[in-house]
Design a protein that fits this description.
It is a single chain. The protein has 431 residues and is mostly helical. It folds into 2 domains: 42 residues, no CATH class; 384 residues, no CATH class. 77% of the residues lie in helices and 0% in strands. The chain contains 20 helices and no strands. The longest helix has 35 residues. It is globular, with a radius of gyration of 22 Å.
Length: 431
């Protein structure tokens, strides 16, 4: 009963327009009070210190700072132009650059919103002006942007690891193959639509010489080296994710200096945006720890396990219910809020049912991708629409619907073939 009251209060606060962080915090405090009275609040100091005193969470502002340096220096445009010549001949033309560029930028950005913002600012006005279907362009950018939390390094994975005490290195390894595979599925959808309706995409008749490809390669190569430095240092065991984040910041500054974009004004702007975004993310983590403490103290996880056992609900049935819940919650809140509410409650039950915690981490990240594209309040929809004055949110929604279906099908594929996520971490970390 206490859990039901707290959850109803949470939904009412969110629907009423209160920021998710404060809604989750108010619901958690109310939950503790209903269950233990004022005495339930006595451990909040220890919970607060435990959420802040984490070497793992220090990776978050570092990865955000790295992405902001690349954004503030305008290097996302150079990355986009460097990829374009290699994919223009495919059916769908430059639309594939949206997917590939998002995947590459995701490997240094760590989040969906920076990835979608970087690619959309460059691509949406330019491709619409070239005669590409605006809705298809917007949909590909929104879908590609969600790769930012699946392709490592991923801030969402770090948050999940904090709640579940799983290995970040294994999560990063587990996200690589699904991220590449999901991006390939997006490209296949683009090719299918371009072949079925050639009017959606103009033909590219421009001839390029080998010098053009060398120039394009020189634009992409520094980003490739940065990715190899970050992920290679983690997978080889030479650096923790936090230390790799620090290496990434240095690497991003070197790339900006290489292209003569490094300046104190640029660093100041990047640092300012990093402080704002990091403060928001880490405050969500702090509040979420209180919510997780409330659910653990009340034993709602054990009660849920008993209910699942009595109802005879299978593992597949529970995962399908989770898909529905994340899709619905995506209409009202951001991904970190969904993880904060659901994962602490459902995680013990899934572990008791034999679900691999690394696999479930990737499953949750893809669920968050689904939620970020769920209309009417999916955050990526507004990021893409806000990058171009001529593009409405309705255009992004209509353009993203086919990609939404791809994510649903990919989730079912993950359930049916869990080795898609587990093969690489088993190979690199010995299981």
């Amino acid at each position: 009963m206490e859990a039901a009251i707290a959850f109803i209060l949470l939904l009412l606060l969110i629907v009423g327009g209160l920021w998710v962080q404060f809604a989750v915090g108010a619901a958690a405090l109310a939950y503790l009070w209903l269950f233990k009275g004022v005495a339930g609040w006595k451990a909040l100091g220890l919970v607060s210190w435990g959420s802040a005193n984490s070497f793992t969470l220090a990776a978050i502002p570092l990865f955000i700072f790295m992405a902001e340096i690349l954004l503030a220096s305008g290097l996302s445009g150079r990355l986009y132009n460097g990829i374009a010549p290699f994919v223009k001949r495919l059916p769908g033309g430059l639309l594939h650059t949206n997917i590939v560029g998002s995947g590459v930028f995701a490997a240094v950005a760590g989040g969906s919103a920076p990835t979608a913002a970087a690619m959309s600012t460059v691509a949406l006005p330019a491709l619409a002006a070239r005669g590409y279907n605006r809705r298809l362009v917007a949909g590909s950018l929104a879908a590609g942007g969600t790769l930012g939390i699946l392709i490592p390094p991923s801030i969402t994975m770090i948050i999940y690891a904090t709640f579940t005490e799983t290995s970040i290195a294994k999560l990063f390894a587990a996200g690589l193959v699904p991220g590449i595979l999901l991006g390939a599925c997006y490209s296949l959808l683009i090719m299918a639509r371009a072949i079925a309706n050639p009017n959606l995409v103009p033909r590219d008749t421009q001839k390029r010489e080998w010098r053009d490809y060398l120039q394009a390669l020189s634009d992409v190569l520094p980003f490739g080296l940065l990715i190899m430095m970050i992920l290679g240092s983690i997978y080889s065991g030479m650096a923790t994710p936090t230390e790799a984040g620090a290496l990434g910041v240095v690497g991003a500054m070197l790339i900006a200096a290489l292209y003569r974009r490094l300046s104190m004004a640029m660093l100041s702007e990047a640092l300012s945006r990093t402080l704002l975004m990091s403060g928001n993310v880490l405050f969500i983590v702090f509040i979420s720890m209180i919510f997780a403490y409330a659910t653990a103290l009340s034993g709602v996880g054990e009660q849920l396990l008993d209910w699942v056992s009595q109802a005879g609900l299978s593992k597949l049935g529970l995962l399908l219910i989770l898909m529905l819940v994340f899709a619905i919650l995506g209409c009202f809140m951001e991904g970190l809020g969904m993880i904060a509410i659901i994962v602490p409650v459902i995680f013990p039950t899934l572990m008791a049912m034999g679900v691999d915690p690394i696999w479930f981490g990737i499953f949750v990240v893809v669920l968050v991708e689904l939620g970020q594209l769920t209309p009417p309040l999916g955050v990526i929809l507004f990021v893409v629409a806000g990058s171009d004055a001529e593009t409405k949110v309705e255009d992004v929604v209509m353009g993203v619907l086919p990609f939404f279906g791809i994510i649903l099908a990919f989730l079912l594929l993950l359930i049916g073939v869990p080795d898609i996520a587990l093969w690489l971490p088993n190979l690199t970390a010995g299981g």
